[in-house]
Design a protein that fits this description.
Layout lengths: L10 E2 L5 H9 L4 E6 L2 H4 L23 H8 L6 E4 L7 E3 L3 E3 L15 E4 L5 E6 L7 E8 L5 E6 L6 E5 L4 E4 L4 E3 L13 E10 L7 E7 L8 E3 L1 E5 L6 E5 L7 H4 L3 H4 L7 E5 L2 H7 L3 H12 L23 E6 L21 H15 L4 E3 H10 L7 H4 L19 H16 L2
Parallel strand pairs: 2-17, 2-18, 18-19, 19-20
Antiparallel strand pairs: 1-20, 3-16, 4-7, 5-6, 6-15, 7-14, 8-13, 8-16, 9-12, 9-14, 10-11, 10-13
Length: 430
């Protein structure tokens, strides 16, 4: 029988997550949690789906990877989701395609970025906000990129039934006839060339017992411009809900992730950012511990002497309170170990030395909480009597296989369960 240690030895609470934990207890407001990191959070093929229906779950939640475990493990009311392919909910006009990736998207190949799009001049999407308070508020979820077109929203019965939140004016405006651009400005610092999970917030003004038919259609536009949609998020505005937005991108280092910081993380105005530090990619691509320390310092705090910045995660801007941040150190992988359980180096750097340098920075700073999943993962496999070595336990098997990874690197169902057993209690404040 496994005697896996509790979460306590691996969690370093620092200043904790007091605002997030208080909000979880009180349930008086909506909460937004953004997951950010690399393929350990992003890639879906390493865990099994079972009976999950991605068309009724938040974007990117295609299998029982860590985002799904967190989504279920926080026990907070959730919005309703309807992807564009949800049976019987949406109707489309024109020729539409569905893709996980596209040459116009800088997240192609890095996450399950399911998107429906149409360049047809008559492209439109129809849906109905059903009667009932659970559909009194909604958000149209779509993508922006360099090919995005201008779209116009219409409500059955004309004005006075639905309002849209205008981000530029910071005000609710009439939704019937409201226009939105799906064009992504390029060359703007820390925004990349595409935004996944952009939201247009809507609220019903009509009585709750009245269903409202809606339509979004393309307005003019040049050749090659496309209408880009994921689907709809809906909730009862009198009942606080939790939004979990997975903005992780596989194969990225911190240096690469920063390119999408503004539109993929900060634009959601998160209450909490859970950042899985992409140390595995950083170690493999630039195996200098000091380089890793500098990037963690700059992205999390932004006050490194001689390299101060105002975009770091823990810095508030424009009068807003900075989000709380929780850091995850990722697990070691099969290639880090020899069959005799010795550490295999990259150049002259063994993985523990790289991880130790980052740990020392986190201990020295002492304020941002962090969860040492590298140590927790090793403790879990050391306590598993089925394996004679860490090397054996970390070998690839299958999404539902007996080891802890699918391919020697990415955690499978068993490995993901280790993350969830440690992360979810920390997020709940237990």
């Amino acid at each position: 029988m496994s005697m896996e240690p509790s979460v306590a030895p691996f969690y370093h609470p620092g200043a904790g997550l007091p605002r997030f934990h208080r909000a979880l207890r009180e349930r008086t407001r909506d909460l937004t949690l953004v997951l950010w990191g690399d393929s350990l959070l992003a890639r879906e093929q390493h865990t099994s789906a079972g009976d999950l229906d991605p068309a009724a779950l938040p974007p990117t939640m295609h299998t029982r990877k860590l985002d799904w475990h967190v989504w279920q493990g926080l026990h907070y009311p959730q919005p309703t989701y309807r992807r564009l392919d949800y049976p019987g909910f949406f109707r489309t006009d024109g020729d539409w395609c569905v893709a996980e990736g596209d040459p116009a998207w800088d997240d192609t190949g890095y996450r399950p970025g399911w998107t429906a799009f149409s360049a047809d001049g008559d492209a439109a999407c129809h849906w109905t906000l059903p009667a009932g308070r659970d559909w009194s508020a909604a958000a149209l979820i779509y993508r922006t990129d360099a090919t995005g077109t201008q779209a116009e929203l219409h409500a059955e019965g004309g004005s006075g039934s639905v309002q849209a939140w205008d981000e530029a004016r910071r005000a609710w405006v009439e939704a019937d006839g409201y226009r939105l651009w799906q064009r992504q400005e390029t060359g703007v610092p820390r925004t990349g060339n595409t935004t996944y999970q952009r939201r247009l917030h809507l609220r019903r003004i009509a009585p709750p017992n009245r269903a409202v038919a809606m339509r979004l259609h393309r307005v003019g536009g040049g050749e090659g411009e496309r209408l880009l949609l994921w689907g709809l998020e809906a909730w009862d505005p009198s009942r606080p809900v939790l939004r979990l937005i997975n903005s992780a991108r596989g194969s990225h280092t911190l240096e690469m992730l920063v390119h999408s910081l503004e539109n993929e993380v900060r634009s959601h105005r998160p209450d909490l950012i859970v950042l899985e530090l992409p140390l595995l990619n950083m170690l493999h691509q630039r195996p200098d511990p000091e380089d890793g320390v500098r990037w963690v310092w700059d992205v999390v705090w932004g006050d490194r002497p001689g390299a101060e910045n105002d975009w770091a995660l823990t810095r508030g801007r424009d009068g807003e309170v900075a989000p709380e941040v929780l850091l995850l150190l990722p697990h070691h992988t099969h290639v880090h170990l020899s069959p005799e359980d010795g550490w295999v180096g990259y150049g002259k750097i063994a993985p523990p030395k790289y991880f130790a340098a980052v740990r020392e920075l986190l201990r020295r700073r002492g304020d941002v909480p962090w969860l040492d999943m590298a140590a927790a993962f090793l403790a879990a496999i050391d306590a598993d009597p089925r394996f004679g070595s860490r090397y054996e336990a970390l070998a690839g098997s299958a999404p539902g296989g007996p080891t802890y990874t699918n391919d020697g690197l990415h955690q499978n169902d068993r490995g993901t369960a280790v993350y969830a057993r440690h992360l979810c209690p920390v997020l709940r404040g237990e």
